[in-house]
Amino acid sequence: MKWKKYRLKTIEDAEDIVIATLYDCGIEGAEIEDKKPLTREEKEQMFVDILPDLPDDDGIAYLNFYLDPEETDTEAVLQKAREALDELRSYTDIGEGTIEESETEDKDWINNWKQYFKQFYVDDILIIPSWEQVKEEDRDKMILHIDPGTAFGTGMHETTQLCIRQLRKYVKPGMEMLDVGTGSGILGIVAVKFGAGHVLGTDLDPCAVPAVEDNRKANDIPDGAFDMIIGNMIDDQETRDKAGYGKYDIITANILADILVPMTPAVVPAMKKDGIYITSGILEDQAYKVLDACRAAGLEIVEQTQQGEWVSITARKPD
Fold first, then answer.
1. For residue range 64-101, what is the model confidence (pLDDT) as tens digits?
2. Pick from 67, 64, 99, 76: which is nearest to 2 by CA?
3. Across 146-161, average pLDDT
4. Which of 46, 131, 175, 267 fits 249 for a cystine, CB–CB 3.0-4.6 Å?
5. Which helix (H) or strand (E) holds 266?
6. Residue in 114, 273, 279 with CA at minimum distance from that of residue 181
């Protein structure tokens, strides 16, 4: 089935009022495209492999919306929207306020991203989504079944692979691990596969809870071996209290250098003496920031590894 796609050109300052106006005309949802810089709060919540480099902000915004011509009198809706926009621009600046029309296929947008996630290897570990089959020649490998969902990384990025290699070096049977910014749960699942006794994951996004639960079950991780809490370890005392103090043999944080700097002193109290702190998500030219933060928090630098332009820093809490 074909859908009609409409693209309304406006300005960033008018996004909210234009969306509200469209809603009053029977258009219930709109995608926003703009070049607004990310706020500090937004950056802190983007526990992802890499932040995009955004173009310079020009103040222009586009609002995309879709109408089904079989269920909607599109001409009537558009006429009403144009009249409402004309009225709106009589007392506020909405930019051009023009609407362009195109046609798009009715796709399964929720699952369409799956075409981009294929099985891959981290050394001798096979990471495979649920919709692909394990090849016969791979059945003797360590196999991780990971479905990232639409909100989290897949593990393909260099930063995740650097963390996995460090976990292989430092995880010992029965260890307690804290994974900050756990996302799909891939690092916690790897740790349990390597022998960790228990993993606690933290994340800001509530979507991490079902993502981790699904991946835990897919990998036969026992109940109670991998738990989750939602909260910010940097400035939320309740989250830090729930995580606990002096109890973790390993803490992992695959985030970004600018988040790792304030996070490091916040998570050090959760570590046992001689505990290991594994970080990644660090661009090569940002590594000094994390090194300085680790030393300032009383940690000893153990190792710095690199893959491409990405760095992982491993530190230890002294006895």
1. 888 877 777 888 989 999 999 999 998 899 999 999 88
2. 67
3. 65
4. 175
5. helix 257-267
6. 279
